[in-house]
Amino acid sequence: MLRSPTRSDRDKSLTGSHPNLTSGSDLNQDSSTSHRVATRNKRKYPNDDTSVKDELFDIKKQLSAMMEMLSVQNVNQKEFMDKVSGDINDIKNEITLIKGISQTLTEKCHLLSSEMTSLKTKTSENEAKIESLEVNIGKLSTPTNLPLESILGELNERQERSRNVIICGISDAQYENKEEKIAADTKEILRITKKIIPQCPEPNYIMRLGKFNPEKRRPVKVSYDSKDLVKELLRNKNAVSSEQIKLFSDKTPKQKEQIKELKIELERRINNGEKDLIIKYVKDVPRIIHAKNYLH
């Protein structure tokens, strides 16, 4: 930076802005060259330039400090936001975990409720079975008055009836003589049985049960040589159910009484809340069983 020269004691009469360039040895120069000397104005600078520089430096320094402070605050704020974001994610994960645990507990509660309902049902069924067993035990404990001959007679009668089948629903028209009646019934029976079993043989004999009534159709007892043939006819009797024809096994009076008692017991157990109970023959013995346990 250029400054104006200070004045000396001998030049006190001269100003700094317009120095006398012709003083000293220049006064001896030819006056003809005096017009060549140029006069320049010296630029004035304020005396407080240094203080301005200092102030600018201080301002710059303060700005730098502020920028550094802002930078530190930004870093701290970012770290804080990252921490808050991490905490929020942790809370979300914990909420998700709690929801999962709650869902699992709800499912377990539903399962437990279902198992308790099933247990109550089984308890009711077991109570009914216990009552039935108590009834049967009571029957067994009752001394029988049937002689051995009656028991053997019952067994023989069941054996003979096992080769018979009772067919209901066959037209019971009246004929001039017995032979025509038997021939008509035999023809209709063959038509029915061959529809069930195509190779079914002709029966040994047939017989109408009960007295003739023009308003009713008496059942027909049909006898064969083989009880296995009778079982097969009974197993496949649904083949003629559309014709309103029904087939039954030939039971003794005691068997009918046993079936009657089973029906009474079945009704009692159903009224006590048991479900899906049916009467089925298991090894030729009628029993009350659950329908879902019955294998077709």
TrEMBL record:
Region Disordered, annotated ranges: 1-50
Taxonomic superkingdom: Eukaryota
Residue spans of biased composition, Basic and acidic residues class: 1-13
Compositional bias (Polar residues): 14-36
Protein name per UniProt: Phosphoprotein
